[in-house]
């Protein structure tokens, strides 16, 4: 990255921002995504809301910040034992630990916010295996509006993630930067809740 910058070669981070690198970016507002997913559950009457998020990328950290913000803004207190964090290597073991904790009634939750739809889908399918129904027993919200959110009878409530718009804006940013010789500003793309039937 430093070499690109030293040589005045335009460089853009897409889909994530990295504070450490001070690079221009075009990304979804991940704090808002985590906030909306959590607030949606709070508005539906849920207090005991778990979070499963990735912590070896900035997206997961920002979405966790949104989770915290939603509790704080609604004058509620989250429980540390309901927060499950994983990295690339520990993903499977952490997800299986969450399922085991639900099965053994080690946690008393009515809902869970997941880092993305892939995690939400995995949790939903594995809860079914232990006799826990979605959304009757536990409500689930994903993030990213991926194809997985629409695969099953239970369609995932999730947050929007306009992939085509991200690509279009990134290409326009690069073209304008090349044409003008000036770095264009960074941009956060708005997101919103897409309601389906995974929340009670």
Could you explain the architecture of this structure?
The chain has six helices and nine strands. By secondary structure, the protein is α/β, with parallel strands linked by helices. It has two domains: 57 residues, no CATH class; 132 residues, Rossmann fold. The strands form three sheets. The protein has a four-stranded parallel β-sheet, sandwiched between helices. Strand 3, helix 3 and strand 4 form a beta-alpha-beta unit. The longest helix is centred in the last third of the chain and has 18 residues. The model has no long low-confidence stretch (mean pLDDT 94).
A few lines on this structure:
This protein is of the alpha/beta class and 200 residues long. It is built from six helices and nine strands.
Mean pLDDT: 94
Q: Which residue ranges are poorly predicted, with pLDDT under 50 across at least 5 consecutive positions?
A: none
- What is the strand tally? 9
Within CATH, the superfamily of the largest domain carries the name Response regulator
Oligomeric state, counting identical vs distinct chains: single chain
Enumerate the strands of the largest sheet in spatial order, edge to edge or round the barrel.
4-3-5-6
What is the CATH C level class of the largest domain, in words? Alpha Beta
Query: Separation of termini?
Result: 46 Å
Largest sheet: 4 strands, parallel
User: Might you state the CATH topology name of the largest domain?
Assistant: Rossmann fold
Report Rg: 18 Å
